[in-house]
Specification:
Elements lengths: L10 H8 L7 E6 L9 E6 L3 E6 L7 H16 L17 E3 L2 E7 L10 H17 L18 H17 L6 H24 L8 E3 L8 E4 L2 E5 L6 E3 L1 H13 L16 H12 L6 H26 L1 E2 L2 E2 H23 L3
Antiparallel strand pairs: 1-2, 2-3, 3-5, 4-5, 6-9, 7-8, 10-11
Helix pairs in contact: 3-6, 3-7, 4-5, 4-8, 5-8, 5-9, 6-7, 6-8, 8-9
C-alpha cells in the first residue's frame, strides 16, 4: 500500500527555529518517525537535557486552538499531572510562529508502551481521573468543540458511504448483499445506542475539557504506571463519560495483527474492570453514566471504525469489509453483555 513520504525539517529551518530557544549547546539532532507524516519531529540532545521539537501539521496549526491546548497543558503541569513540559522560547512563548508555520518544543520523556497488563490499564484509568479532576472548573474565552462520536451525523454519513468506498478499494464481488447487510446492522446499532444515550439525559450532563483520544499510543509507561500523557491535539468540551467510554474500549479491545476475523468479539473483561476501578478511585461515575457506558462504547467503536474505512476503503492495512465484520461482532457482544462488565462490582 502506497504511503506519503514523511515531512522533514530543512537545515535552514532548524537553524532559524533553534535560534529562538535557550536549550544549551546542541550535541545531536535525531529525526523521530512517529505520529503524523505531515508533522516532522526531532529529538534534540544538548548539554543540559533532551527535547522534542515538532512542527504542526497543516490542519492542526490553528493558532487559537494551539494556544488553547498549551494553556491546558500549562494548567495540568501546575497541578503535577504527568506530561512533557512545554519549553518556552527566549521570549517566554510556548508557541513559535515562523513563516506561517507553528513549532512547539517539549522536554523529552522516555518510556515504555502499554504492556496490556491489568495493572497498567488500571493506572491509565486513574490518570484519566486525575486529568478530569485537574480540569474541573477550567475556563477560557475560547471553548473547544462539543462534537464527538455520540449521535454524530458525520458518522452516519460515513456509514452511508461505506459500500461505495469498499467497492472502490476492495474486492467484494459476490458479497455485495452481505456487505450491505453488515453496514445496515452497524447503522441500526449506532442509531439505537445513540437513542438510548440521548434518552438517558446526555445533553443535560455537565461538560468540561476532555481529552477524547485517551488510548495506549498516547501515553508512556514506566514499571506498569503512566509516566507521561503525550497528545493534547483533540481537546473537546463534553461530559467526562465520553472519555471514559472510549478509553475503556481502547484499553480492553482484543485483536492486534493477524487475520481480523480471528479476533475475539469480547473485550478483556479484567482490563475493563481494572480501568474503571482506577478511574473511580479519583473521579466519580454516577449510576446513569455506568448504565450508559456500553452504549457509548458501541458508538465509539463504530465511529472509530467506519470513518477511516469510508475515506479509504480500509482500516490501516486491513481490508474494509473484513474489518467491518469484526466490528459488528464486537458490537453485538457489547449489546448482549456490555452491562455486565461496566456495572459497579
Amino acid at each position: 500500500m502506497a504511503s506519503w513520504p514523511r515531512a522533514e525539517f530543512t537545515k535552514g529551518e532548524l537553524e532559524a527555529v533553534l535560534g529562538r530557544y535557550d536549550i544549551g549547546t546542541i550535541r545531536s539532532i535525531d529525526p523521530l518517525a512517529r505520529g503524523s507524516r505531515h508533522a516532522p519531529k526531532a529529538i534534540l540532545t544538548t548539554d543540559v537535557g533532551r527535547y522534542l521539537l515538532k512542527r504542526r501539521a497543516p490542519g492542526r496549526d490553528n493558532p487559537v486552538k494551539v494556544a488553547f491546548s498549551h494553556g491546558v497543558q500549562r494548567h495540568l503541569a501546575r497541578s503535577g499531572f504527568p506530561l512533557p513540559r512545554l519549553q518556552p522560547t527566549r521570549d517566554g512563548e510556548t508557541m513559535l510562529v515562523l513563516d506561517g508555520r507553528i513549532y512547539e518544543m517539549f522536554e523529552y520523556v522516555s518510556g515504555e508502551p502499554f504492556d496490556r497488563s491489568p495493572g497498567a490499564a488500571q493506572d491509565a484509568g486513574r490518570v484519566l481521573g486525575l486529568f478530569h479532576k485537574a480540569l474541573e472548573g477550567y475556563r477560557t474565552e475560547w471553548q473547544p468543540s462539543y462534537n464527538c462520536y455520540h449521535d454524530n451525523n458525520g458518522v452516519r454519513t460515513s456509514l452511508n458511504g461505506l459500500p461505495a468506498a469498499i467497492n472502490m478499494h476492495d474486492s467484494v464481488a459476490g458479497q455485495e448483499a452481505e456487505l450491505l447487510a453488515t453496514v445496515n446492522q452497524l447503522y441500526d446499532a449506532y442509531d439505537r445506542a445513540s437513542a438510548v444515550v440521548e434518552a438517558g439525559g446526555f445533553r443535560e450532563w455537565p461538560s468540561q475539557v476532555v481529552h477524547t483520544d485517551w488510548h495506549p499510543g498516547n501515553m508512556l509507561f514506566a514499571g506498569g504506571r503512566v509516566s507521561a500523557v503525550i497528545d493534547y491535539d483533540s481537546l473537546h468540551w463534553l461530559p467526562c463519560v465520553t472519555d471514559v467510554a472510549n478509553a475503556v474500549l481502547q484499553f480492553s479491545i482484543l485483536g492486534d495483527g493477524g487475520d481480523p476475523l480471528s479476533w475475539p468479539a469480547a473485550p478483556d473483561e479484567t482490563r475493563v474492570r481494572r480501568f474503571l476501578a482506577g478511574y473511580t478511585s479519583v473521579h466519580s461515575l454516577n449510576n446513569d453514566e455506568r448504565r450508559l457506558l456500553p452504549y457509548l462504547m458501541i458508538e465509539a467503536l463504530i465511529a472509530e471504525a467506519v470513518c477511516p474505512v469510508a475515506a479509504t476503503g480500509s482500516f490501516g492495512r486491513m481490508e474494509g469489509y473484513r474489518f467491518l465484520r469484526v466490528v459488528l461482532e464486537k458490537t453485538r457482544w457489547l449489546q448482549r453483555k456490555g452491562g455486565s462488565i461496566t456495572a459497579m462490582p
